[in-house]
Amino acid sequence: PLITGYEPPGEPNPMKPIILGFSQLGSESTWREANTASIKEAAAEAGITLLMTNAEQDQNKQFEAIRSFIRRDVDMIAIAPVVQTGWEAILEETREAGIPVIILDRSVNVEDSSLYITFIGSDFYEEGVKAAKYMMDRMRHHSGIIQIAELQGTVGSTPSIDRGLGFRKTIEANGNYQITQTKPADFTQKRGREVMREFLQQPKEKWPQVLFSHNDDMAIGAVEAIKEAGLKPGSDIIIISVDGTRRAFEQMVDGNINAVVECNPLLGPLLMQAVKEIMAGRTLPKRMVTPEDIFTQELAAKEVEYRKY
Ligand code: AHR
């Protein structure tokens, strides 16, 4: 079966390497660095020529990159979209050029899903659910209202939107859990520290008992701010974050972070496999979700040395 809207590429020619244009959204976090490295390595291993650009969190730069890939007449385009909306027009351009598109890591909100072939990445909503479930279990003996601070990621990005939604949906039935402070901190350690400082500049009665951070880098920044305020991260404030980087595992081993929901950045091999399948004219599932876990301090000590990112 053929992929709607695209000519079958026919038998791949082993003499002509596949050219993949990849628009990476930025380099904001440890996760992103691991993701970029994984894609480079996997492309080299698969013998695929990779043209990669870094959009530095700017959707317009992603559009420019995609247009440059069209001009280069690449075989395929992969996009890690910085935000969820605003992709229709550029995806129409790629379709007109007859270049298949793979969406990687973060999803796009488009009415016509035939504008791309497949979306490979994590289930961010489920990550938010896992974080909330861990928190509710951890805090089950706590009586009264539990104040939660939330560090959001990039405004308008799928991981930030969906992690927030999954977390809220899970706590909504229990009035004891209240998100009392929430603010974007762009998925960076620096902003995580700054925003957590702002939270702790509030009167003491507003301080949170729990911090839900949408990624590890922001959580590590927050740990610094919590220490500066004379508090003990991991006990005065329970910290739950997302990604599962080795740095966060080390923080768990030190008792600063309590639990981390895994989000796997090592998408390179899956992406290259998808590229080859599409080039061979095969149909792929519209959605490919990566399997993921949750790690607590007990598990972190055993696992830290094996973390690949
Ligand atoms: O899109 C994945 C998210 O983006 C990761 O959780 C975060 O660390 C990154 O910057």
Give me a quick take on this structure:
With 309 residues, the chain is α/β, with parallel strands linked by helices. 39% of the residues lie in helices and 19% in strands.
Strand order of the largest sheet: 2-1-3-4-5-11
Number of helical segments?
A: 10
Radius of gyration, Cα only, in angstroms? 21 Å
* Unreliably modeled segments: 1-5
Largest sheet: 6 strands, parallel
Query: What ligands does this structure carry?
Result: alpha-L-arabinofuranose
The pLDDT mean sits at 95
- List the secondary-structure elements in sequence, H or E: EHEHEHEEHEHEHEHEHEHEEH
Question: Overall 3D geometry?
Answer: elongated
Find the count of extended strands (DSSP E, 2+ residues): 12
> How far is the first residue's CA from the last residue's CA?
37 Å
- Amount of beta strand: 15-25%
Q: Report the structural category.
A: alpha/beta
Walk me through what this model shows.
- With 309 residues, the chain is α/β, with parallel strands linked by helices.
- The protein has ten helices and twelve strands.
- It has helices spanning 30-46, 59-72, 88-96, 124-138, 158-171, 189-200, 216-228, 246-253, 268-279, 297-303, and strands at 19-24, 49-54, 76-79, 101-104, 118-121, 146-152, 177-184, 210-213, 238-243, 259-262, 287-289, 294-296.
- The strands form two sheets. A six-stranded parallel β-sheet has the order 2-1-3-4-5-11, with helices on both faces. Strands 7-6-8-9-10-12 form a six-stranded mixed β-sheet, sandwiched between helices.
- Helix 1 links the parallel strand 1 and strand 2 (49-54).
- Helix 1 crosses helix 9 (268-279), helix 6 (189-200) crosses helix 7 and helix 8 packs across helix 10.
- The radius of gyration is 21 Å and the shape is elongated.
- Residues 1-5 have low confidence and may be disordered.
- Bound molecules: alpha-L-arabinofuranose.
- Pfam families: Peripla_BP_4.
- Residues 22-281 form the Periplasmic binding protein domain.
- Belongs to the bacterial solute-binding protein 2 family.
